[in-house]
Automatic annotation (TrEMBL):
<dbReference type="InterPro" id="IPR011049">
    <property type="entry name" value="Serralysin-like_metalloprot_C"/>
</dbReference>
<protein>
    <submittedName>
        <fullName>Uncharacterized protein</fullName>
    </submittedName>
</protein>
<feature type="region of interest" description="Disordered">
    <location>
        <begin position="15"/>
        <end position="49"/>
    </location>
</feature>
Length: 65
């Protein structure tokens, strides 16, 4: 009886493993989407950084002090 129970549990774990593999593929696809959005935010971050440097160069020292 114990051996039968062990076999039944192994089959169940195999099914749950396949389900987790499918969910893993979905998370990979969503990860690629987030990576693309991350690159866009990095580009916008560089733009904002260059704008801040230009604004700091234009501001007088007296105002910053």
């Amino acid at each position: 009886m114990k051996r039968v129970l062990l076999i039944g549990n192994s089959q169940r774990s195999a099914v749950s493993g396949q389900r987790s593999a499918v969910s893993g593929q979905r998370s990979v696809v969503s990860g690629q989407r987030s990576a693309v959005s991350g690159q866009r935010s990095a580009v916008s971050g560089q733009w904002s950084a260059s704008n801040k440097i230009e604004s700091l160069g234009k501001t007088p020292i007296a105002r910053s002090a």
